[in-house]
Amino acid sequence: MAFLDTIKERAKANKKTIVLPESMDKRTFAAAEQILKEGLANLIIIGTPEEIAENGAGYDISGATIVDPFNDPNKQKYVDKFVELRSKKGVTPEIAAKTMEDDYMYYACLMCKCGDADGAVSGACHSTGNTIRPALQLLKTKPGISSVSGYFLMEVPNCDLGENGLFVFADCAVNTDFDAPKLAEIAELSAESFKMLVGKEPKVAMLSYSSKGSAAHADVTKVADAVKLVKEKCPDLAVDGELQLDAALVESVGQSKAPGSPVAGKANTLVFPSLEAGNIGYKLVQRLAKAEAYGPVLQGLSMPVNDLSRGCFAEDIVGVVAITAVQAQL
Ligand code: ACO
Question: Which of 134, 141, 149, 258 is deepest in the core (most CB within 10 A)?
């Protein structure tokens, strides 16, 4: 079964409630119709009657709950929660109400925080920063986690590398500055994400332009230090580095550059040394190898909130909603 089909089956088996705040975009409604038809999730769409009428015309979204952010009987509860969480940052009831009306992603995150939704998906017409900032501010990280990061589940066609062409690539979306402890945390979270979505043992390669000391530079030392930290914290995890990409993926190269490594030549979880490398790397594979790229999926948040590419199709929104619903089951 293709990766997304298995995720859809899991989403259907224990249906969760996902909120979609982008009623200003027709793709939201095309996706909502399909999600409801396939029974992947219960949906809440945030929008005014005018937005719903204008952008939802022609789509059957009769199974969705529509929440008008200007006339919602629950709104005061969300305003109160917003003030409770952010009064120290200067948020008053007036600022809270205005922020939620101006930016429905804040509304969506407060619905999650108050237990009225299990997760949220946005980003078809908002930048990554604007999509995830409300979640970082309101939902915060899981206990014990210092940073949220973003991965792509890559499905490469006709590929026998990784897990038959399935990989997690991280961090491709969030952290602009990495030190060794942050890189180590990203590796640990990415391993958990691979296991959760693919159901197989992760083999984590921490990537560099050097393999096992073949080059000397502070950037290489940072990756090697991160590998040590992950090995100390997760002694049972198959993790290795620093490794060049070919050593991570190709058996013969792995054997020659990192003999005896439990990961070299078999990696299925690729941890990039910088956001530039991760973001450019996933797009190269997506465009040149015609891979499916699901995400960016956020890891380390207290509740599942996921971003979309602004170039996404309705079908991509369906896939990310299914992944979000599965994350919400855990
Ligand atoms: N994990 C957890 N919390 C975080 C993180 C993180 N990685 N980053 C910021 N925060 C928290 C801060 O602690 C702060 O909390 P507070 O307000 O309670 O004190 C809050 O989020 C806002 O932090 P700022 O530093 O003010 O955040 P800012 O809005 O400047 O930036 C952001 C955060 C949006 C994640 C930024 O790092 C960013 O823009 N990253 C790059 C996003 C991007 O453009 N990615 C590439 C495109 S994605 C693609 O191609 C699909």
Answer: 149
Q: Tell which atom from ligand 1 comes closest to the C-alpha of 296.
A: 51
Residue 289's CB is within 10 A of a number of other CB atoms, namely 13
Q: 260 in the Ramachandran plot: left (φ > 0), alpha (ψ -120 to 50) or beta?
A: left
Nearest Cα residue to atom 18 of ligand 1: 137
| Contact present, 36 and 60 (Cβ < 8 Å) | yes
How far apart CA 165 and CA 280 sit, in angstroms, is 19
pLDDT by residue for the chain (330 residues), tens only, comes to 689 999 999 999 999 999 999 999 999 999 999 999 999 999 999 999 999 999 999 999 999 999 999 999 999 999 999 999 999 999 999 999 999 999 999 999 999 999 999 999 999 999 999 999 999 999 999 999 999 999 999 999 999 999 999 999 999 999 998 899 999 999 999 999 999 999 999 999 999 999 999 999 999 999 999 999 999 999 999 999 999 999 999 999 999 999 999 999 999 999 999 999 999 999 999 999 999 999 899 999 999 999 998 888 999 999 999 999 999 998
What pTM value is reported for the model? 0.94
Q: At what angle do helices 49-56 and 26-38 cross, to 10 degrees?
A: 80
Which of 88, 95, 136, 294 for mutating ligand 1's site (highest number of atoms within 8 Å of CB)? Answer: 136
User: Parallel, antiparallel, or unpaired: how do β-strands 42-46 and 149-155 relate?
Assistant: unpaired
Quick one: which of 183, 194, 145 has its CA closest to 277? 183
- Which residue reads 């989403």 in tokens? 11
